[in-house]
Amino acid sequence: MMMMMMMRRISERAATGFSKNLILRSSASRFHGESLDSSVSPVLIPGVHVFHCQDAVGIVAKLSDCIAAKGGNILGYDVFVPENNNVFYSRSEFIFDPVKWPRQQMSEDFQAIAQRYGAMNSVVRVPSIDPKYKIALLLSKQDHCLVEMLHRWQDGKLPVDITCVISNHGRASNTHVMRFLERHGIPYHYVATTKDNKREDEILELVKDTDFLVLARYMQILSGKFLKGYGKDVINIHHGLLPSFKGGYPAKQAFDAGVKLIGATSHFVTEELDAGPIIEQMVESVSHRDNLRSFVQKSEDLEKKCLTKAIKSYCELRVLPYGTNKTVVF
Fold first, then answer.
1. Active-site hit among 78, 97, 233, 274
2. 274 carries an active-site annotation
3. Secondary element (H or E) of residue 144
4. Which of 143, 206, 210, 265 has its Cβ near the most Cβ atoms within 10 Å?
């Protein structure tokens, strides 16, 4: 009888331990790779840190110790060290108690490590504490990327604050887009451009307080002067049919040529047209069964999905510069 009671107690303890371990693993797997939010724990909140420096022994240990020493727990850790290239990239997701590790102290702790290793990039974000990125959207006549971003922003799936929308095309006040913007208090600026006057100084004034810009099918080329004057990142979307089909109506050109694969590319804007570091690319098959309407619809769907994913990755600190014209996307 005594032996049976002892075995039962041992079994109960083992089951309890297994249950706790299962809960912890479940929480970690649910968190890793998903958008960071504050629903993990009523006390512990999530943070993310990215690091880029010359490769050296002990970097992972130092970063891990920094988090663990303040009671934090790492839930996901990605490292990339390119072959034959002495550089180090990492991205960590962790949870912590903001009472034990105040936000300002966290920045100072990671900054100390950055100084020790001469880091080119060291950024930490706590989504539930830090302000959202402020962005401005620039577009021309096509609305599909703008509409997608507005709806995702409204649903809380795009972690940004949209400060304004700027277009070189006017829109009637009774359109769906204009009614949406008015309802949510987002200013719309119609800045008509000509071949000789791109009115870039006016646009710079409108976007001076933003963290980055999004070209949601803005069919104007931004000058090097504008990019230097803005001094922050600009993200663009274009169809993956470039450079094979340049000029007007590239989708129709591709349709007439009978292509079997279409795509979209989101990239950083540089002075060289459509040649900046790539953030995201998507492709989809088309066939002889597609008419021009379905062909264009598939192309536009890819563009808006590709752009919103690129912006989400950027806001979640998944995108780091790699070399002169590449990116690391964790």
1. 274
2. yes
3. helix 144-154
4. 265
